[in-house]
Specification:
- The structure holds 3 protein chains of 3 kinds.
- Chain A is mostly helical.
- In chain A, about 60% of the residues lie in helices and about 0% in strands.
- Chain A has 2 domains: about 90 residues; about 60 residues, no CATH class.
- Chain B is built from 18 helices and 2 strands.
- A two-stranded antiparallel ribbon of chain B has the order 1-2.
- The longest helix of chain B has about 50 residues.
- By secondary structure, chain C is an alpha/beta fold.
- Chain C has 2 domains: about 160 residues, D-Maltodextrin-Binding Protein, domain 2 (3-Layer(aba) Sandwich), CATH 3.40.190.150; about 130 residues, D-Maltodextrin-Binding Protein, domain 2, CATH 3.40.190.10.
- In chain C, strands 1, 2, 3, 4, 5, 6, 7, 8, 9 and 10 form a 10-stranded mixed β-sheet that branches.
- Chains in contact: A-B, A-C, B-C.
Chain lengths: ~190, ~500, ~325
């Protein structure tokens, strides 16, 4: 299912430390690759947005209770918000000067391949679906779907084994939490029917 | 000495077959439940409270002690193996423990944690016996200005975990501080960054942040770059610590308690800050700096030992002052009251059998825990040999259970995913994750103590430096800050080397 | 081979759908006080006051054979407001109740919660407990009169420590006290602490001029002489404690913290009276009496509409104090 995008290894370029830009692209492609190369500027934008958000929250806050002392509920957010703006600018300068954040490596991580966005989106989608389904369908069903869906997204294709493992795991977790420990989890639509 | 003979009497109580049985049962139950996602020691003790209702008080509290220590150890097990800390004290254990586990050294990480717990608990409990009255007096003298001074020191220490790129580390720290701002302002009840949502009013739990950034972020990041070619399972490696490991860690085990115990005993201490300070100390002192972030065993041994000793410190304040310094202590205090026993200044006189039996059973519990968990470590570590899709699906599953089970709120799952996506982005662009977690822990604490100190002094800034303790800490801070300058004068410092989060050996 | 996948799917589906209901043990019939599947929500963390009340009540009810297996669970957040909101949203659920008290009334107001306790079905008030005004044993203040005189002169210099956030019981008590002494509540330098632990240390260490907290929390420290008790806030003196009430000392304050149980809105009369009867029987049981003695709680049993009227009055009182503070 590995869905390879045709652009060869732009991810790798951005990800590799001090990425030596690849060979011989022409005009438009060059600009695109510059953007790819400097995609970290997106982080600066996000930090900037976060800083603005924090500062907006501070400024719209109506301090309605008798505040005592020089440091009120606004002071610290003000400092943090300003810090975010400053870091966003400094990071942008760093990126434009050629600084690169090094993508994290690890045992299971293969940075020589392009990022597989489909899997990431699938996983996030499955997780979100679980959050939506957990109340109407109950924990055992939603939990099993989460495990099975995640295993599927990560490339497991044992159509007979996977759902059973997921169901058993989810059901056992439900039994331990709800029955043994008394931590309530929703049981599902058939509760009280059977 | 008087305490010593009382302690011997205590052992006589703790070592009766029946009480020994309760201790074993407590340790087993505590470990089993502590391993479950989302259930920290406080929750474990609260959930198991009814189990002990049938027992007489001494037996019940011996069992409690077992549950408490067992749950703490169980929490670090999941932290190390699955990167999903179940409680805030176990967050730091994931930092070095999980990379170790990934590299096939899970058994060693667990063993280092187990011995760390043992050493920390032992030393902590000895300190408890020897120093309880003195420490209790001292704990009362520590006030808001002193706490704030410690927070400043901790913020200085953060600089050593910022990683290779200072600016990216700072960005991460600020993200953490921002997350820490969410919720009701503790001093005035003002809502901050809650966007009107009551679910956000209590702020974002450190555990949710840690599980989101560590576990979910990691799972998504791995999903994007899953090594599909090799399919090589994680090697199991040797089951035990070898001499090299022990030589590296014994000092860490011994240092941890002296950081953890005092923090446990003081009212606003807890285990988060000492585990973090122990981590930073070990990193500073380590001869293997290049391994940090990729599985340095000292980074597991020290913090775990500190966490366990802090638990012993917690008991000091609870038994001698009736002062619950952590959630677990609050639950145990409630349990004491169930039996009509009021911990506090009179407890040692009124219920000597119970108190000394409890203290003796702490030693017994520690030995049991070590005996139970050392052999289990290699078995636990084998858990990681299951195929990758199942492993990461399982991590997502348990992270979700942990986030949902506690409050039964769907919003928590959405927050968890959101923080997971932040963690994914941070990995992609080389922002280290640890400073963010530290920011969530330190930020709210520091702000609260600062404002409380200023309020007590009625707004006068001198209120921050009006105790000898706080002045001492600030002097230490100044020395640390001046140190690089001094070094520059005496000789050229070495060129900064890459710290954590380096790309290092990304090849095979 | 082809058949195995559908079979596995079917097996999995059966397990996760039919498993949970089958796991539920056939719980008893709904006779007498038996309410099978009753759940008791605690709107704060394990170890807190509502938690202890709920777990004690559940255990006593089971021991007394009133009902089986009451499930106690915690849903903390915003001083109880998150739990309150959830309770109100469970319209018509006769198998749910929430342990609560004055703190939840205050939190709902200070958090500007859209749901208040008037949206719930009041079941019973169970216990009450006065607050105490305490100082360290080496404090310069020997009597409540000395303390209040000093407090009047420089309210800002005498920080008051309490275990609850603004709007909670330990916040309301000193505010009412200040008002009675002629100090504007806005002048009071109230320092909130997380629960009793940090507060106790701050009082013992003279970090705050005096502390206000529930009597049960510091009983032992008072008896051991570590804390000096200056006054109790309730209408009567506390047995075994040598301190006047605030009213005896000349300050017109009558303040007790209380705890009780409320249920979701929209209950049928039958459901409501069933829940009320359960707590009536609990109140009459020896087990509950024994627990109250052990925990030092005072009996304050009140049910039905009277409890509802009491809730309204408490709510009005909270609103009044908070308004004076400008909330």
């Amino acid at each position: 299912m590995t869905n390879r995008p045709d652009a060869p290894s732009a991810e790798t370029l951005a990800a590799s430390p001090g990425g030596a830009p690849a060979g011989t692209p022409d005009g438009a492609a060059e600009r695109r690759s510059w953007l790819r190369d400097h995609s970290e500027l997106g982080v600066c934008v996000l930090l900037l947005a976060l800083g603005v958000l924090v500062l907006t929250d501070v400024l719209t806050m109506d301090v309605d209770i008798a505040q005592r002392g020089p440091v009120g509920p606004r002071t610290v957010p003000l400092v943090v918000g300003a810090g975010l703006l400053a870091v966003a600018v400094l990071l942008a300068v760093d990126v434009l000067r050629g600084g690169r954040g090094e993508a994290e490596s690890g045992e299971d991580v293969d940075l020589s391949e392009p990022a597989d966005w489909r899997t990431v989106l699938l996983l996030a989608g499955v997780f979100l679906a679980t959050a939506v389904l957990i109340e109407p369908l109950g924990f055992p069903v939603a939990g099993a779907l989460l495990f099975w869906g995640a295993a599927f997204a990560l490339g497991s294709r044992h159509h007979d084994r996977d759902p059973l493992i997921a169901a058993v795991l989810s059901f056992l977790t439900y039994a331990v939490f709800d029955k043994l420990l008394g931590v309530p989890l929703p049981g599902g639509p058939l509760m009280g029917v059977l | 000495m008087d305490a010593l003979s009382s302690l011997l009497d205590g052992f006589a109580t703790a070592l009766t077959p029946v009480n020994l049985l309760w201790a074993v049962l407590g340790v087993l139950l505590g470990t089993a439940i502590g391993v479950l996602p989302g259930i920290g020691p406080a929750m474990a003790v609260a959930l198991l409270l009814p189990v002990t209702y049938g027992l007489e008080p001494t037996g019940a509290f011996i069992m409690f002690a077992g549950i408490y220590y067992g749950a703490m150890f169980g929490g670090s097990t999941t932290s190390i193996l699955l990167n999903t800390p179940g409680e805030s004290a176990a967050v730091v254990a994931a930092m070095e423990g999980n990379p170790m586990a990934k590299a096939g050294r899970g058994a060693q990480a667990l063993a280092a944690a187990a011995v760390g717990h043992f050493a920390g608990g032992m030393i902590g409990t000895i300190l408890l016996v020897a120093l309880a009255p003195a420490v209790a007096d001292l704990a009362v003298d520590i006030g808001a200005p002193d706490y704030f001074a410690i927070m400043v020191l901790a913020f200085i220490a953060v600089t050593s975990v910022l990683g290779a790129s200072r600016i990216r580390g700072l960005a991460s720290l600020l993200i953490g501080l921002t997350l820490g701002l969410v919720g009701l302002d503790q001093m005035t009840g003002q809502q901050r960054l809650t966007f009107g949502s009551l679910q956000l009013a209590d702020g974002v739990d450190v555990v949710i942040v840690a599980v989101g950034l560590f576990a979910i972020g990691e799972a998504l990041w791995v999903a994007a770059h899953l090594r599909r070619t090799s399919g090589r399972p994680i090697p199991v490696g040797r089951p035990w610590l070898d001499r090299g490991d022990v030589r590296r860690t014994w000092k860490s085990w011994l240092r941890g308690p002296f950081i953890g115990f005092p923090f446990g005993a003081i009212p606003a201490g807890g285990a988060e800050i000492p585990t973090f300070l122990s981590y930073v100390t070990e990193k500073r002192l380590s001869k293997h700096k290049d391994e940090w972030g990729k599985g340095a065993i000292e980074g597991v041994a020290g913090p775990e030992s500190a966490a366990s000793a802090s638990a012993a410190g917690t008991l000091v304040s609870m038994l001698t002052l009736g002062l619950p310094t952590t959630a677990v202590a609050a639950v145990m205090l409630a349990a004491f009251q169930q039996y009509g026993i009021q911990p506090g200044p009179l407890l040692f006189e009124r219920e000597p059998d119970l108190v000394w039996g409890l203290i003796a059973s702490l030693f017994v519990g520690m030995v049991l825990l070590l005996a139970l968990n050392l052999p289990l470590a290699p078995l636990w570590a084998k858990l990681l040999r299951i195929p990758r899709p199942y492993l990461y699906a399982g991590i997502l599953f348990f992270a979700a259970v942990g986030a949902y089970a506690v409050g039964g709120e769907v919003v928590d799952l959405v927050i968890l995913l959101f923080i997971g996506l932040i963690g994914f982005g941070m990995r992609r662009y080389g922002l280290p994750v640890l400073p963010a977690v530290i920011g969530v822990i330190l930020g709210p604490n520091a702000e609260q103590q600062l404002r409380r100190a200023l309020q007590i002094s009625d707004g006068s800034v001198t209120g921050l430096v009006d105790t000898p303790f706080s002045v001492t800490v600030y002097v230490v801070v100044l020395l640390i800050l001046a140190w690089p300058l001094l070094k520059r004068f005496t000789g050229r410092g070495r060129a900064g080397r890459a710290g954590s989060g380096g790309v290092g050996g990304s090849g095979e | 081979m082809r058949l195995r996948t559908p079979l596995a799917l079917f097996g999995a589906a059966v397990l996760v759908l039919a498993g949970p209901p089958l796991l539920t043990t056939g719980s008893g019939s709904e006779t007498g006080t038996q309410i099978p599947g009753l759940r008791l929500m605690v709107p704060n963390t394990p170890g807190g006051g509502y938690d202890i009340t709920a777990r004690t009540a559940a255990k006593n009810a089971e021991d007394a054979g009133l009902t089986h297996n009451i499930e106690v669970f915690n849903l903390p957040g915003a001083g109880g407001t998150v739990g309150l909101t959830r309770l109100v949203s469970e319209h018509g659920n006769g198998k749910l109740a929430m342990s609560m008290g004055l703190g939840v009334v205050g939190a709902a107001r200070s958090n500007h919660s859209p749901k208040t306790l008037s949206d719930t079905t009041p079941i019973a008030r169970l216990t009450e407990e006065p607050d105490v005004v305490v100082v360290a044993k080496d404090s310069p203040y020997e009597t409540i009169g000395q303390l209040v005189d000093a407090w009047k002169r420089t309210p800002g210099k005498l920080p008051v420590g309490g275990g609850s956030s603004p709007g909670g019981p330990d916040h309301l008590a000193p505010m009412l006290m200040a008002e009675a002494a002629g100090i504007a509540p806005k002048q009071v330098n109230y320092v909130p602490f997380d629960g009793g632990g940090e507060l106790l240390a701050s009082i013992l260490g003279n970090k705050v001029a005096f502390g206000v907290s529930g009597v049960g929390e510091y009983l032992d420290q008072i008896k051991a002489g570590e804390l000096r008790l200056l006054a109790v806030t309730g209408p009567e003196r506390v047995d075994g404690l040598d301190a006047p009430t605030l009213r005896e000392a000349g300050y017109d304050v009558d303040f007790t913290n209380w705890r009780g149980v409320v249920a979701p809105p929209g209950l049928s009369d039958a459901e409501r009276s069933k829940l009320t009867r359960l707590f009536e029987e609990l109140h009459d049981s020896d087990e509950w009496r024994e627990s109250m003695k052990q925990n030092g709680w005072d009996d304050a049993f009140l049910t039905g509409d009277e409890f509802g009227a009491f809730l309204e009055a408490q709510d009005a009182r909270v609103v009044k104090v908070l308004k004076e503070l400008g909330l």
